Amino acid sequence: MRFQFDPHQPYQASAIEAVTDLFDGQPADADQLVTTFRLLPSEPALFDQDEVSGQVSLDIAAEVGAVGNNLVLDEDTILANVQRVQDRNGLESAQALADGLQFDVEMETGTGKTYVYLRTAFELAKRYRFTKFIILVPSVAIREGVKTSIDLMREHFRHLYPEINMDASVYAGERAEEVRDFASATSLQFLVMTIDSLRGDKNTRIMHQTRDKLAGLRPLDYLRATRPIVIMDEPQNMESQLAQSAVADLDPLCTLRYSATHRVTRNVVYRLDPLDAHQLGLVKTIVVSDAQELGGSAKPYVKLLGVSRDPFKASLELVCRKKDGSYAKRKVTATQGDDLEHVSGGNPAYEGNWRVSEISVEPERIELSNYGYLHVGDEIGSNQDAVFREMIRETIREHIRKELQVHARGIKVLSLFFIDKVASYLGDGVNNLDANGDFATWFDELYTEELDRQPEARDIMPVTALEARSGYFAQMKSGKGKNAVMTFKDSSGKTKADDDAYELIMRDKARLLSMDEPVRFIFSHSALREGWDNPNVFQICTLRDMASETERRQTIGRGLRLPVNQAGQRISDTGLAQLTVVASESYQAFASALQNEYQKAGVAIGFVRKQEFSRLPITVDGKETVLGAKRSAEIWDHLHRRGFINEQGEVQGSWVPEQLGFTVDLPEPYAEYEDDVINIVNACKMETIIKRKRKRVARKLNKELYAAPGFEEFWDKITQRTIYRVNFERQALVDACVNRIKTAPRIEPIRIQVTRTKMTMTRGGTKGSALGSRGANLTGSYPLPDIVAQLQEATSLTRRTIIDILTDSGRLGEFLGNPNDFIKMASTCIQEELAHVVVEGIQYEKIGGSIYELRELQEDGLEEKDRFLDQLYKVTNTGKTDFDYVVFDSAVERQFAEHLDGREDIRLFMKLPDKFRIPTPVGDYNPDWAIIKTEEGQDRLYLIRETKSSLDPTKRRPGENAKINAAIKHFEAIGVNYKVAAPDNWRL
To answer: Which H/E stretch holds residue 272?
Structure first.
């Protein structure tokens, strides 16, 4: 089949024109002018430098017969062109050229970046007779991808530009003499090369060595003589000083830098970011299908993430106990001798002396007292095999669903598995035919099962799993002569063996799209991710943890392109063009992490940019154009003045277009754009919280406050310790708890849950809607936790009472299937019933001691960690509280902090730390605020306040009311004024 390329895509035309218009004013016959190449004595010369002093000017271009590019425009003219292009494309106008003639084009993965820069070269050749282009790439993978793209597009460009002859070659050190053909050709020339073939010196790279076959010159001299236009593909991976120096060695006419994510921006002339691409329907819709273990078993789970020295530490992933009694996997740090039960927050699964007895950095491993050695990346106690098996099943199931959906339209469906270890696929085998690793074995079993479930798919899919799957890995030869066997191996992505794997998978790109080719499922090494994609990849399954901060974006990038049918035509139907990512994390975690990746890459999510309105149409002098960056900024300024957005462009609470009578009240030139502006801002509104580095601050401790006269007396007063007694009828409590547990929702056994969620990307972030889910019970044996002891700890009830409640409930069978979830349910039920039964009978009595010593408060204050501004209120009167920022958990708390900050009769206020806890029958209670109020000139009124949105107790949960009622009696016992406060009455 042949790919069909649409030459009429408006966004691609804009990207091409953004570059070609930079040279507006360049005469078409400038190639007839003479260019002199200057060779500095500091570089390898053609003759003895002792014979010549000063600078040597040699017309190498004439000597070698080079035909080069010739630019006659000065930089001021080009800068004026840049400014016009930037304004047209809604970009901030540059006041000067950054780093000379280097121009950035930002295009999201899957939108035809390679097509755009190749066609841009044709347009530059047509308009200005620029014919020499060097395409620099950071890796072999991308080099092979570019080479394949040129081959696929050759016929397309021949049809578009019949008057232009084009040749393309790949630079190889063993064929360095071929640079002569590149330099002397009069046709349009592309030379594709990796940055590594260029960077270095005569001792490390052939590029810098003189060659007899090149008349004693270096290959580099031939390239320099052409004044090439350098096209950098993925320049963010070529930003080192050495790489930049290597590019400068080419003496380029200019450098065009194409990437989805520039690490360093220079002169940006066009931008199509990920959200633009999704909103314009230029890439597939993303669907996340998550497969994760719910409930968590009671066996100890440990994964070693890394080790470090000075001091020796181990980074572990454990199942940790959270404050609410539930369990979740979390990253923790442990030192030698640490008890994992303590490190995990009290998870009883680690009882029995699970300790880190040794930490080693060579080799990177730890020794666990109850297990032995665990190397980096290894784990024990997980159900990962079960999760991976279900991920494979889900990928097959999704694949069959998609095949049945699109087969009639002539669309071949591909699924891609990324694995970390080739052995997981091959096992003891050496090729696809005898592969017997876990992944291959599971796939074969599940493929047969799923085809049996949907027999209608047998007519359009391979009958056997062996026909349907194939692996693409780096190869190695073992044995000699006739006994030599070619097998696969793990690789880094940068070896010679990888070259062959890249070449194979690139060469097979078009074949894989053919219905005649049975292979549908591709297993590939993680190292082969970058540089390879295929438009008909509809499912991507990553059989590994997504740990890298760019993992998700790299993953979806392999399948973002719109699919093609057997005629090579792209299909943009959003109902069909969907990429399903089968992930081992929840949709929320995946979406949040993906947003963070975009955010770190500088993609504006959740912000109204000053250029947001630049592409709205406008007619000027009878000609339709766009508003441009300047007019867009005027609209932005108006929104800012009206308080709809802040200085960063975040949408404010005053933005309520859904209210009757709301108006943006745009000034006269832009009044007609009211609806457009409202729609654009709504698309930018932040709907999920995204933390940004620039919003992170470290709070400063006001040490003087703790040492101030009267503070110690105040602190001693409000932290007095009490004990409580509760009088209640035991049997009434048992009966109430039994009834509550009987009516609680059923506890499902531990299972693998697979959920398909459609991801929609907007400027406000990602939105998801569930498309379907299914579950598979996890079978196996594991030790049961001591349910009676854990419930005792959570409720303070006697063993006899707890046993009576559990046995009378009749639901202990569910405890066997999912112990942790059952304990959490039972604990919640008992605590809430306790709240009803014991509140009226509780009595507090003051005793000696403090619930939180002043010494602890001072020590904890010095250990304060970084916070984010969206959680903080900046204090105006910093002498009144212990930190320059007050942490708040709700809008009500923020309002209260501001209220206290501004009142003159409040001498001191502080948000009470989490360690300030009062024991109650329904769990510890942490009040919100401690206050010293001045009355009649005396600082003796000590107040404790709990802030809520309403004073109405019916609008609060029963457990909250129980704790509040207990707190009232506690503070009565120690003589401190305690009340609930709300915005309509702060009760001060």
So the answer is: strand 267-272
Residue (of 548, 538, 550) closest to 582 by Cα position: 538
Question: Among 416, 411, 415, which residue's Cα sits nearest to residue 564?
Answer: 411
For residue 91, CA distances in Å to 105, 271, 610, 635 come to 11, 8, 9, 15
- Judge whether 339 and 277 are in contact, CB under 8 Å: no
Report the candidate in 559, 648, 634, 558 with the shortest Cα–Cα distance to residue 599.
648
DSSP 570: B
Helix (H, G, I), strand (E, B) or coil at 618: strand
The whole-angstrom separation of Cα 627 and Cα 633 is 10
Task: Give the SS3 label for residue 116.
Answer: helix
Q: Which helix (H) or strand (E) holds 124?
A: helix 113-128
Q: How far apart are CA 104 and CA 91, in angstroms?
A: 12
797: Cβ–Cβ under 8 A, 6 or more apart, which residues? 791, 830, 834
CB 317 within 8 A of CB 379: yes
Q: 599 to each of 275, 378, 613, 857, how far by Cα in Å? A: 12, 31, 21, 36
Largest Cα span, the chain:
110
Three-class SS of 355-394: EEEEEEECCEEEEECCCEEEECCCEECCCHHHHHHHHHHH
Give the tens place of pLDDT for each residue, 313-367.
999 989 888 887 778 788 899 999 999 999 999 888 898 889 999 999 989 999 9
**Sequence-ordered strand ranges (E) for 810-894:** 842-850, 866-868, 872-874, 885-887
Reading the block at residue 957, the tokens are 């949960």
Residue 574: strand, helix, or coil: coil
Q: pLDDT by residue (tens digit) across 212-228?
A: 888 888 889 999 999 99
Q: Dihedral (C-alpha) 656, 657, 658, 663: value to the nearest 10 degrees?
A: 110
CA angle 17, 22, 27 (to 5 degrees): 105
- Contact yes or no for 604/764 (Cβ under 8 A): no
